[in-house]
Protein backbone atom coordinates (compact mmCIF):
# COMPACT_ATOMS: atom_id res chain seq x y z
CA UNK A 1 0.00 0.00 0.00
CA UNK A 2 1.37 3.37 -0.99
CA UNK A 3 1.04 6.17 1.54
CA UNK A 4 1.19 9.69 0.18
CA UNK A 5 3.18 12.41 1.84
CA UNK A 6 -0.09 14.07 2.85
CA UNK A 7 -0.71 11.14 5.21
CA UNK A 8 2.26 12.27 7.29
CA UNK A 9 1.43 15.33 9.36
CA UNK A 10 4.06 17.79 10.62
CA UNK A 11 3.47 16.29 14.08
CA UNK A 12 4.32 12.82 12.73
CA UNK A 13 7.56 14.12 11.25
CA UNK A 14 8.47 15.86 14.50
CA UNK A 15 7.80 12.71 16.51
CA UNK A 16 9.85 10.60 14.10
CA UNK A 17 12.78 13.01 14.37
CA UNK A 18 12.51 13.00 18.16
CA UNK A 19 12.59 9.20 18.37
CA UNK A 20 15.52 8.99 15.95
CA UNK A 21 17.40 11.64 17.92
CA UNK A 22 17.29 9.45 21.03
CA UNK A 23 18.05 6.18 19.26
CA UNK A 24 21.64 6.04 20.54
CA UNK A 25 22.71 4.75 23.98
CA UNK A 26 25.04 7.72 24.56
CA UNK A 27 22.16 10.17 24.07
CA UNK A 28 19.88 8.27 26.44
CA UNK A 29 22.75 8.32 28.95
CA UNK A 30 23.20 12.09 28.56
CA UNK A 31 19.48 12.83 29.01
CA UNK A 32 19.24 10.48 32.01
CA UNK A 33 22.32 12.04 33.62
CA UNK A 34 20.89 15.55 33.29
CA UNK A 35 17.53 14.49 34.75
CA UNK A 36 19.23 12.65 37.63
CA UNK A 37 20.99 15.85 38.57
CA UNK A 38 17.94 18.06 38.90
CA UNK A 39 17.76 18.90 35.18
CA UNK A 40 20.61 21.39 35.58
CA UNK A 41 24.13 20.15 34.84
CA UNK A 42 27.27 22.25 34.66
CA UNK A 43 29.59 21.63 31.74
CA UNK A 44 32.31 20.26 34.01
CA UNK A 45 29.97 17.56 35.35
CA UNK A 46 29.71 15.98 31.89
CA UNK A 47 33.02 14.21 32.58
CA UNK A 48 31.07 11.87 34.89
CA UNK A 49 29.21 10.40 31.90
CA UNK A 50 30.92 7.07 31.02
CA UNK A 51 31.73 8.01 27.43
CA UNK A 52 34.65 9.74 25.74
CA UNK A 53 34.44 13.50 26.44
CA UNK A 54 34.70 14.39 22.76
CA UNK A 55 31.84 11.99 21.98
CA UNK A 56 29.69 13.46 24.75
CA UNK A 57 30.33 17.01 23.54
CA UNK A 58 29.43 16.03 19.98
CA UNK A 59 26.10 14.53 21.00
CA UNK A 60 25.34 17.38 23.40
CA UNK A 61 25.69 19.81 20.48
CA UNK A 62 23.46 17.67 18.25
CA UNK A 63 20.80 17.38 20.96
CA UNK A 64 20.91 21.16 21.38
CA UNK A 65 20.46 21.60 17.64
CA UNK A 66 17.40 19.33 17.83
CA UNK A 67 16.03 21.42 20.73
CA UNK A 68 16.02 18.40 23.05
CA UNK A 69 18.64 19.95 25.32
CA UNK A 70 18.94 23.63 26.24
CA UNK A 71 21.90 25.55 27.60
CA UNK A 72 22.31 28.83 29.42
CA UNK A 73 25.18 30.79 30.92
CA UNK A 74 24.93 31.34 34.67
CA UNK A 75 27.76 32.84 36.72
CA UNK A 76 30.05 32.34 33.72
CA UNK A 77 29.25 28.60 33.65
CA UNK A 78 27.35 26.71 30.95
CA UNK A 79 24.33 24.90 32.40
CA UNK A 80 22.59 22.15 30.40
CA UNK A 81 18.97 21.08 30.89
CA UNK A 82 16.42 18.89 29.13
CA UNK A 83 13.73 20.79 27.23
CA UNK A 84 10.72 19.71 29.33
CA UNK A 85 8.08 21.08 26.97
CA UNK A 86 9.48 19.11 24.02
CA UNK A 87 9.71 15.89 26.04
CA UNK A 88 6.16 16.14 27.37
CA UNK A 89 4.74 17.03 23.94
CA UNK A 90 6.53 14.17 22.16
CA UNK A 91 5.62 11.67 24.89
CA UNK A 92 1.95 12.56 24.54
CA UNK A 93 2.10 12.26 20.75
CA UNK A 94 3.76 8.86 21.06
CA UNK A 95 0.95 7.60 23.31
CA UNK A 96 -1.68 9.02 20.96
CA UNK A 97 -0.45 6.67 18.21
CA UNK A 98 -1.95 3.77 20.14
CA UNK A 99 -5.39 5.32 20.55
CA UNK A 100 -6.91 3.33 17.61
CA UNK A 101 -5.63 0.12 19.17
CA UNK A 102 -7.19 1.05 22.52
CA UNK A 103 -10.56 1.57 20.84
CA UNK A 104 -10.39 -1.80 19.09
CA UNK A 105 -9.41 -3.67 22.23
CA UNK A 106 -10.68 -2.57 25.63
CA UNK A 107 -8.05 -4.67 27.36
CA UNK A 108 -5.34 -2.50 25.78
CA UNK A 109 -6.62 0.53 27.69
CA UNK A 110 -4.63 -0.33 30.83
CA UNK A 111 -1.49 -0.60 28.74
CA UNK A 112 -1.72 2.51 26.60
CA UNK A 113 -3.83 5.03 28.48
CA UNK A 114 -1.41 5.71 31.33
CA UNK A 115 2.16 4.41 31.22
CA UNK A 116 3.35 3.20 34.60
CA UNK A 117 6.08 1.08 36.10
CA UNK A 118 5.31 -2.62 36.01
CA UNK A 119 5.62 -4.26 39.38
CA UNK A 120 7.99 -7.19 39.68
CA UNK A 121 6.73 -10.36 41.39
CA UNK A 122 6.54 -9.88 45.13
CA UNK A 123 7.24 -6.14 44.91
CA UNK A 124 4.85 -3.62 46.39
CA UNK A 125 3.77 -1.12 43.75
CA UNK A 126 4.39 2.49 44.65
CA UNK A 127 1.31 4.73 44.65
CA UNK A 128 1.33 7.06 41.60
CA UNK A 129 1.12 10.13 43.82
CA UNK A 130 4.00 9.11 46.09
CA UNK A 131 7.11 11.22 45.70
CA UNK A 132 10.64 9.86 45.77
CA UNK A 133 11.05 11.43 49.21
CA UNK A 134 7.92 9.71 50.48
CA UNK A 135 9.13 6.40 49.08
CA UNK A 136 12.51 6.74 50.82
CA UNK A 137 10.89 7.74 54.11
CA UNK A 138 8.56 4.72 53.91
CA UNK A 139 11.42 2.30 53.19
CA UNK A 140 13.59 3.81 55.95
CA UNK A 141 10.86 3.34 58.54
CA UNK A 142 10.16 -0.18 57.27
CA UNK A 143 13.83 -0.97 57.82
CA UNK A 144 13.61 0.42 61.36
CA UNK A 145 16.14 3.16 60.69
CA UNK A 146 16.18 6.68 62.04
CA UNK A 147 17.30 9.54 59.82
CA UNK A 148 20.52 9.74 61.82
CA UNK A 149 21.16 6.01 61.37
CA UNK A 150 20.56 6.18 57.62
CA UNK A 151 22.89 9.18 57.44
CA UNK A 152 25.65 7.18 59.17
CA UNK A 153 25.20 4.26 56.78
CA UNK A 154 25.57 6.61 53.83
CA UNK A 155 28.34 8.73 55.42
CA UNK A 156 26.29 11.91 55.00
CA UNK A 157 24.78 14.29 57.54
CA UNK A 158 21.24 13.97 58.88
CA UNK A 159 20.19 17.23 57.20
CA UNK A 160 20.89 15.63 53.81
CA UNK A 161 18.54 12.75 54.60
CA UNK A 162 15.87 15.17 55.79
CA UNK A 163 16.10 17.16 52.56
CA UNK A 164 15.92 13.97 50.47
CA UNK A 165 12.77 12.84 52.27
CA UNK A 166 11.10 16.20 51.74
CA UNK A 167 12.15 16.31 48.05
CA UNK A 168 14.35 19.35 48.61
CA UNK A 169 17.62 17.63 47.66
CA UNK A 170 18.63 16.14 44.30
CA UNK A 171 20.64 12.92 44.34
CA UNK A 172 23.67 12.26 42.20
CA UNK A 173 23.73 8.95 40.26
CA UNK A 174 26.16 7.28 42.66
CA UNK A 175 23.95 8.05 45.65
CA UNK A 176 21.05 5.99 44.29
CA UNK A 177 22.94 2.71 44.65
CA UNK A 178 24.39 3.74 48.02
CA UNK A 179 20.91 4.63 49.25
CA UNK A 180 19.46 1.36 47.93
CA UNK A 181 22.11 -0.60 49.83
CA UNK A 182 21.47 1.36 53.02
CA UNK A 183 17.71 0.76 52.79
CA UNK A 184 18.15 -2.89 51.73
CA UNK A 185 15.99 -2.37 48.65
CA UNK A 186 16.62 -3.24 45.02
CA UNK A 187 18.70 -0.62 43.21
CA UNK A 188 16.56 -1.22 40.11
CA UNK A 189 13.38 -0.59 42.10
CA UNK A 190 14.78 2.66 43.51
CA UNK A 191 15.83 3.81 40.03
CA UNK A 192 12.35 3.03 38.65
CA UNK A 193 10.65 5.11 41.33
CA UNK A 194 13.23 7.89 40.90
CA UNK A 195 12.83 8.12 37.12
CA UNK A 196 9.04 7.83 37.27
CA UNK A 197 9.02 10.81 39.64
CA UNK A 198 11.23 12.73 37.19
CA UNK A 199 8.82 11.98 34.36
CA UNK A 200 5.85 13.03 36.49
CA UNK A 201 7.60 16.28 37.42
CA UNK A 202 8.33 17.05 33.77
CA UNK A 203 4.71 16.33 32.85
CA UNK A 204 3.42 18.64 35.59
CA UNK A 205 5.77 21.44 34.54
CA UNK A 206 4.76 20.96 30.91
CA UNK A 207 1.03 21.09 31.67
CA UNK A 208 1.50 24.14 33.89
CA UNK A 209 3.36 26.01 31.16
CA UNK A 210 0.94 24.96 28.43
From TrEMBL:
Xref: SUPFAM superfamilies: lambda repressor-like DNA-binding domains, Winged helix' DNA-binding domain
Domain HTH cro/C1-type: 136-190
Residues of the HTH arsR-type domain: 7-102
Superkingdom of the organism of origin: Bacteria
Xref: InterPro entries: Cro/C1-type_HTH, HTH_ArsR_DNA-bd_dom, Lambda_DNA-bd_dom_sf, WH-like_DNA-bd_sf, WH_DNA-bd_sf
Protein name: Helix-turn-helix protein
Amino acid sequence: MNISNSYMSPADVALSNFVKALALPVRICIVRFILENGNAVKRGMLSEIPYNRQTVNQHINELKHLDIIKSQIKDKETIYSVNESVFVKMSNQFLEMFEPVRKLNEEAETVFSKPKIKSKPGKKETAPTQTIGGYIREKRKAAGLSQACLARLMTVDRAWVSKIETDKQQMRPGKLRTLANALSVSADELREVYYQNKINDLAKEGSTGA
